[in-house]
Each structure stands twice: as C-alpha cells, then as structure tokens.
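ok new one. same drill as before - structure tokens go in, u give me an amino acid for every spot. 154 of them this time. try not to just spam alanines like last time pls lmao
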C-alpha cells in the first residue's frame, strides 16, 4: 500500500484539487508529515474513479447495462410504431384531425338545420291549436337528426 498526497493525485489523475477533495470526501488521511496529509493510494483512486465511471452505491448514478437495455427498448418501440404505420393501424395526426373537424362541422350543420325544418310545422300546428303535437314534432326532428349523424361513416 503506497501513500499519496493531493498534489500527487492531481499529477496522476489530471483532476484539480477541488474535484479530488469532493470525490474523496470522508476519506481519512493514512498519515501526515506535519505539512501534507498522505492517503492510501488504492482507496483514494477507487473513490476518484468510482465517481467518474458511475461505480458505487449511489442508485441515482447511471448504470451502463441499464442504459443499454433502455436504448434497446426505445429502438424496439420505434420499430413497432413504424410497423403499425405500415400495417395501417396508425394514421397521421393531421389526417385524423381533418376528418374529425369535417364530421363535427357536419353534425353542427345538421343540428342547426332542425329549427328551419320544424319552424313551419310548428307555426301550422299553433294556428290550428294543436300545441300538444309541438313537443312530439321537436322530439321527432331531433331524433331524426341524431339518426342521420349516427349513419355517418368515418
């Protein structure tokens, strides 16, 4: 077991003092000469490079095999999406949106037409004092409009 100082570790690793101090946090000196502290070289280098290569007990650090598995899953998902598009199972968003807008506008137009269809009939019924049929006629017109809309194919 050899002993090294911060200066020697800086020369060996190329890291600045502040980085070494942070990575070696908690490592007690193996000895001192009154001017410099000496550290166990094996333990000091293990701590320095463990942080650099994501080795250690910290669960938040990246794990190479986990990242490879994640990448493989994302690539497989991408291929699956391409296959679904090729099979016609997925449609482009702009086409779906255009079709939906078209059908909503058709429904709006059909429902707004109810008043024009029913108004003359209602006036005639009111002139003949057949007001009881008014509700039935309105209900019938609405149901007919809904039936027309339900037959619309996307």
């Amino acid at each position: 077991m050899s002993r090294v100082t911060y200066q020697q570790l800086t020369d060996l690793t190329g890291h600045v003092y502040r980085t070494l101090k942070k990575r070696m946090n908690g490592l007690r000196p193996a000895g001192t000469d009154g001017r410099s502290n000496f550290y166990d070289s094996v333990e000091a280098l293990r701590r320095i490079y463990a942080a650099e290569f994501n080795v250690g007990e910290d669960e938040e650090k990246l794990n190479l095999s986990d990242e490879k598995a994640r990448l493989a899953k994302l690539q497989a998902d991408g291929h699956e999406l391409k296959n679904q598009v090729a099979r016609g199972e997925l449609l482009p968003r702009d086409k779906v949106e255009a079709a939906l807008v078209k059908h909503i506008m058709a429904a709006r137009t059909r429902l707004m037409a109810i008043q024009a269809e029913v108004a003359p009939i209602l006036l005639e019924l009111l002139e003949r004092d057949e007001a009881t049929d008014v509700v039935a006629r309105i209900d019938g017109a609405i149901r007919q409009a809904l039936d027309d809309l339900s037959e619309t194919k996307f």
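Residues 60-90 form one domain. and btw Residues 8 and 32 are 14 Å apart (CA to CA).
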